[in-house]
Amino acid sequence: MKLKKPPMAVTTSPCALFTPPTIKIPRLFRPSQQKVKVGPMTVSPMGFGTWAWGNQLLWGYQESMDTELQQVFNLALDNDINLFDTADSYGTGKLNGQSEKLLGKFITQYQGDANDIVIATKFAAYPWRLTPNQFVNACKSSLDRLQIDKIGIAQLHWSTANYAPFQERALWDGLVAMYDKGLVKAVGVSNYGPKQLLKIHDYLKERGVPLSSAQVQFSLLSMGDDQMEIKSVCDSLGIRVIAYSPLGLGMLTGKYTPANLPRGPRSLLFRQIIPGVEPLLISLKEIAEKRGKSVPQVAINWCICKGTIPIPGVKSVKQAEENLGALGWKLKPNELDQLEYAARDSSAKMIQNVFQTR
């Protein structure tokens, strides 16, 4: 990936002698053994999601967090995480697009080699985006915010098949146009169910555009028939599954209980689901203790073992360090069975994204 703008110049001054130490942790996996293919690109087995970067409503974002977010970004690259997922709609109100802007800033200011970074961004199916050219323009706007010359994976954020089927063709032709114009290296979809996934795969294939990825909610809380069918379809077609919310919005961290719920809108969802998560959390804790890992690390590792690329959200260095500990090891078959049995036995099921189609 080439930067649109050269890295910021670094000048020598007395202050340079007193710069704070770079935050580093030990390397946790060997890239040559662990990296995976998505279309024409090679990416880390886990990426970082940036939904929180600019979202004040759900995640309490404040601009004062930007310094730590940059440390998170640098920490990821220093430990061979090269996949970052974002969207042109990430950021609330006047901060719309903030996630892409921050990534663009962090990429240009990174002092190491930024050429291997893969940005996966999603384009919202806004009701006023009705032509392929409007999606091309949206792509160009994202490129400007990201300050790069080509997007790694351009993804449709959701399908309109459930409520505006006439718009669906414009979405698909928009992906084709981005790809044909060389604005993106690969294309993908998000929140597409198995039937609609097959349709767009065949449509794109006829036009010489490979469908490289499908991003869906996928975790031990999201093991419903639809999600497993999506995974099966993707496996049969060579499409890589990108697993968002691998920690169930935080419910699989072990941090929350019915008496300790997060603030904001998430508390309404957690109040419904958390009471039934206990059997699964017991199994996660048991395996985590035996392995010397944390509960979130075991939950993320399950996603990796299932052949997906999890993209846990990160908004602090502590979270980034925690997530990195999910790499460099694999759950054993009997541990996978134990977790999946507990998940099926649990009364708690994640509510599916309302935009996901069949």
Describe the 3D structure.
With 358 residues, this protein is an alpha/beta fold. The chain contains 13 helices and 10 strands. It has helices at 31-34, 56-59, 66-78, 98-109, 132-146, 165-180, 194-206, 225-237, 266-273, 278-291, 295-305, 317-324, 333-345, and strands spanning 36-38, 41-43, 48-49, 83-85, 118-123, 151-156, 184-190, 211-217, 240-244, 309-310. The strands form 2 sheets. The protein has an 8-stranded parallel sheet with strand order 3-4-5-6-7-8-9-10, with helices on one face. The longest helix has 16 residues, at 165-180. It is globular, with a radius of gyration of 20 Å. 45% of the residues are buried. The model is unreliable at 5-26 and 28-33 (pLDDT under 50).
Nearest-integer average pLDDT: 88
User: How far apart are the termini?
Assistant: 35 Å
Major sheet: arrangement of strands: 3-4-5-6-7-8-9-10
Can you write the helix and strand succession as a string? HEEEHHEHEHEHEHEHEHHHEHH
CATH superfamily of one domain: NADP-dependent oxidoreductase domain
Structural category is alpha/beta
Q: Number of helical segments?
A: 13
CATH architecture descriptor of one domain: Alpha-Beta Barrel
Q: Choose one word for the global shape.
A: globular
Query: In CATH's first tier, which class of one domain applies?
Result: Alpha Beta
CATH topology of one domain: TIM Barrel
Low-pLDDT segments, ≥5 res: 5-26, 28-33
EC number: 1.1.1.65
Protein name: Putative NAD(P)-linked oxidoreductase superfamily protein
InterPro entries: AKR (IPR020471), Aldo-Keto_reductase (IPR050791), Aldo/ket_reductase_CS (IPR018170), NAD(P)_OxRdtase_dom_sf (IPR036812), NADP_OxRdtase_dom (IPR023210)
GO molecular function, one term: pyridoxine 4-dehydrogenase (NADP+) activity
